[in-house]
Amino acid sequence: MMTFVCTASAQDRTIQNVLQEHADAIVASSRKSIGPAIDAVSSSGLLAAQTVLQQWQEKNLWFVEDEGAFYYAQPLDAETYTLFAFEDGAPVGDYNKAAIQQIKPNSGIRAMIGAALVQFQLNDPDPERRREALLAIQRDGEAAHLVPLRASIASETNVQIKALKQTTERLLTISFDTDDSARIAAIDGFDGSLSIDARAALNPVISTKIALSDTLPEGANVKGQIKAGSEVLPISDAFAMLVDAGLVTAQPTRDERKSALEANIVDGKVGGYAVADLNTQSARDAAYSALAANGTVPAYDPSFTMERAATAARFVEVYDEPSKAVTDAAEATLKSINRAVGINQTADLLLDGLSLASIYFLAAIGLAITFGVMGVINMAHGEFIMMGAYTGYVVQQIIPNYTASIIVAIPLAFAVTFAAGVAMERLIIRWLYSRPLETLLATFGVSIALQQIAKNIFGTQARPLTSPAWLDSALVFNDVLAISYIRIAIFVLALIFLGVFLFIMKKTRLGLETRAVTQNPSMAASMGINPDRVNMLTFGLGSGIAGVAGVAIGLYAKVTSELGADYIVQSFMTVVVGGVGNIWGTLLGAGMIGFFQKGIEWLNPSNTLAAQTYMIVFIIIFIQFRPKGIIALKGRAAGD
Questions:
Q1: Alpha-carbon distance 366 to 353, whole Å?
Q2: Residues in contact with 389: Cβ distance below 8 Å, sequence separation at least 6, in sequence order
Q3: Confidence of residue 5 (pLDDT cuts 50, 70, 90)
Q4: pLDDT value of residue 451
Q5: Quick one: pLDDT band at residue 373, thresholds 50, 70, 90?
Q6: Residues in CB range of 73: below 8 A, 6 or more apart
Q7: Cα–Cα distance between 254 and 260 in angstroms, integer?
Q8: Disulfide-capable partner of 409 in 252, 392, 465, 543 (CB 3.0 to 4.6 Å)?
Q9: Which of 354, 344, 368, 325 is nearest to 505 (CA)?
């Protein structure tokens, strides 16, 4: 085949000239000879080079032999194709399929073209395309990506993408560079890093296998000695390695020896022993040994044991990576990474504990008011939480905007549950102040009734209380440490309620009267304070706060009629551990229970029920030593 060679000057050189100079290699499509052609296109510096490589990789490169030219094509019909120039994308004409030749690179050539395309992707004017190319290289990098990646770093103007390029370059250097010093420098660059990609790149470097010391080549990178019979090398596996290496011969089993004896019976004898005399194992072993001495059957040593053979051999754990300097650097870096991961996992555990404590505090703050100020054991407290969550659900059915609906739902839930609390106090609670057991039974009955009413209205299926889109994601600090925005919102809400509660109790007349009734109701009444009114408003306030807590909890928990039952026990535990009637005690109790439960779950992540059990046991023990809680309250709530 004749090759058309363009004689254009260097400044007028086009991509067509480059392709025509390597036409023979391109048309032949042999992986052995195609390299210079791909290199010539990719290094031409021409704008059309990327288009050529992309079309070539997609098998859309066509050769017109009569013209000696290359184009890309679009089918016009089954037999006709429209060809386009690479330089400007202009159509050059319609050609019959028989007059043009499609260049069909195999998978190996397409991989080479893909590697050449990397330099264009890494220098694309669009920063997002550059970032996507880097992430693709991190997922499926090759040695061929190193050169264009390194060449693109110096010219990168985007600070974040430049850092990503440098990180990607270190990852590829660890995996593919042949220079040990470069690999060690790249490994050291990840010292203390929390990147999952860094750990993924380093773990193969320190991968090991167990081998027989006698079979290793000189200079093998040995990590340490392994004892046969240990957890990592059972006796059976060690013995199998010895057999595979040809260092020992597997002894015939009893069944195999029996079969060999049966196969060698001649005239009623085996190995010179009469068959009738082979009525003991020792006699059969002697006959077998006689056959083995004659070479008739494999040798057998009655004193041989697998354990003795395995323990006599020397086994070692050897690195797959031959360079000791590289594995030492990788081990040291991974140790620093594991230390950093441990610190961040601890911080993540503390955040989880803080988040759970915020939830318990929100659920218990209303109970702390009613239980502490009034001494009422309100078993229906959880149902006020449930009522608040259902209020949020109903509001979202009316207001489709999730942000606006939550803003409306919070004060509405407070109003609904405040009114329900006032009604409950006026109708039931105020008649039972001097009878705590009957109060417990009455509120328990109210709890069951409210659950059934909720089932009748909303059904038994969980109802969605959807959080706004801006709460869906998480605040990510690194690959280990993150916290969802919904948990942050609940924490902030808990702080707001703490502040509101302190303001009410310290700066308002209701707070002053509540504290007076708490410490000495008779004296408060003699000073003109109406204890019944204070009790009514206080119970309503506690119920209203429980309703707002229901909206917050419903954003991440399932909203059902049993929602409150999931939190009533934790609420009582929080109040009792913290100290009845003291808001700071409730805060400390919520923190203690939240952190303790998350700590147990971390130790035993597969069994959250065990965490609940251990937590209850802990609280029982704690109350034995601090029966009045962390912060004891003086006054009626303390039993005065």
A1: 21
A2: 413, 465, 550, 551, 553, 554, 557, 559, 563
A3: very low
A4: 92
A5: low
A6: 60, 62, 81, 82, 83, 84, 95, 100
A7: 10
A8: 392
A9: 368
